[in-house]
Known about the structure:
Strand content: 5-15%
Structural class: alpha+beta
Helix content: 25-40%
Largest sheet: 2 strands, parallel
Oligomer: single chain
Radius of gyration: 16 Å
Amino acid sequence: MAIxxxxxxxxxxxxxxxxxxxxxxxxxxxxxxxxxxxxTVASNAHRRAGVDVxxxxxxxxxxxxxxxxxxxxxxxxxxxxxxxxxxxxAAGPPVTAHAVHPGYATTPTPGRGDR
Length: 115
């Protein structure tokens, strides 16, 4: 979360690639085998995004903001979950799709000691 600007090996903004594109690809590959539910780890941070996903700047090439990139990735998670819920399961048993906010955790910060 809120990492310095970086890219995946495929050239995508790292938070978007890690938080959305990877889980998206895995879910699509597994979908024919899922028989019950899909749970997406989302975040309340999507509320700060302003727009759901800036499809004109998906890779934050017009100015990188760690927080904005994270918010955009989490907005994409919710849009994907919404679409999973909307589309009927065409091949196989119906599945339910859920997005969850896991809550907050205070973790040690290097150089600052435990909080």
